[in-house]
Amino acid sequence: MAFRKFLPLFDRVLVERFTAETVTKGGIMLPEKAQGKVLNATVVAVGPGSYNQKGDLQKVSVNVGEKVLLPEYGGTKVTLEDKDYFLFRDGDILGKYVE
After folding, report:
1. Residues 41, 15: Cα–Cα separation, whole Å
2. How far apart are alpha carbons 8 and 50 in whole angstroms?
């Protein structure tokens, strides 16, 4: 478990993107260029939050295990134990899915 060894700082969130669909519902294999970018991810680690001007801690708005919607561009790619993760600021995450 790579994310247990890595703790983001401040208001950073470590996410693992979902894998792209490689086969359509009809069974057609999609080439890599046609797959598009996956904007959904699962949160695997969160930082403690950031401090505002008054010195109060503002906690991160997502929790570990939640599914979130990411922007198309941005984030910092991090490779831990041969797996790709991405670091985003809490404010960069567009939303989270609720059940």
Report:
1. 6
2. 12
Res 87: pLDDT:
92
Q: In whole angstroms, what is the distance from residue 77 CA to residue 16 CA?
A: 10
Confidence tier at 36 by pLDDT (50, 70, 90): low
Q: What is the pTM of this model?
A: 0.76
Query: Which distant-in-sequence residues (6+ apart) come within 8 Å of 54 by Cβ?
Result: none
Backbone angles phi, psi at 94, to 5 degrees: -75, -30
Q: Distance (Å, rounded) from C-alpha 77 to C-alpha 17?
A: 11
Name residue 13's beta-bridge partners: 46, 88
Burial of 78 (0-12, 13-18, 19+ CB in 10 A): middle
